[in-house]
Amino acid sequence: MQSHLSFTAAALMFSLVALPACKRDEGGAVAELRNPQGATVGEATLEEVEDGVRIRFEASDLPPGPHGFHIHETGDCTAPTFESAGGHFNPTNASHGLEDPDGPHLGDLPNIEVGVNGMVTVDVIARGVTLADTGETSLLAGDGTALVVHADPDDNVTDPAGNAGDRIACGVISPR
């Protein structure tokens, strides 16, 4: 009887230890965001959820205040301007802005608010996108995509980018 209990306990421990490793291998993505000087300022983890992709972003050394935060259409973050990331991720050809009746782009996300200490933590769901290997709404297909922080807040209506200003941080979204 005791050996059966020990085996069951050992099997349970193995299952608990093995499951997180399997989940990690099943997908997800990350993005390390850097400023124009090349210093790392933040990291985002992305996981597919029922309504889209959950983005958890933590950053430091950013200017305090509100900033536009978007998914851009190309997985390239060439400094210092990050223009290589292209426009907002918009495979559905919608209008820009979370408040636009003909929008939003799939890459439009709520503004972030950086504290006076230069730090921010964000947990947001990008609706309608996936982390699949293929498909027009995939953040990982083709040339991939990037997360971008802008100098100014997004006004959530003006095409094509909400007057969010310069790109001050960028990170390529890559599979884990």
Strand and helix map with partners:
Layout: H1 2-25, E1 29-34, E2 40-49, E3 52-59, E4 65-67, E5 69-72, E6 112-114, E7 120-127, E8 146-150, E9 167-172, E10 174-175
Antiparallel strand pairs: 1-2, 1-10, 2-3, 3-7, 4-6, 5-8, 8-9
Ranges with pLDDT <50 over ≥5 residues? 1-25
Helix share bin: 10-25%
For the biggest β-sheet, the strand order reads 7-3-2-1-10
User: What is the correct CATH architecture?
Assistant: Sandwich
- Give the SSE string: HEEEEEEEEEE
The overall pLDDT average reads 86
**CATH homologous superfamily designation:** Superoxide dismutase, copper/zinc binding domain
Radius of gyration: 19 Å
Q: In the CATH scheme, what's the topology name? A: Immunoglobulin-like
* Helix-strand category: alpha+beta
Count of runs of 4 or more consecutive helical residues: 1
Query: What is the strand tally?
Result: 10
- Beta fraction of the residues? 25-35%
Number of domains: 1
The top-level CATH class is Mainly Beta
Major sheet details:
5 strands, antiparallel
- Distance between the ends: 43 Å
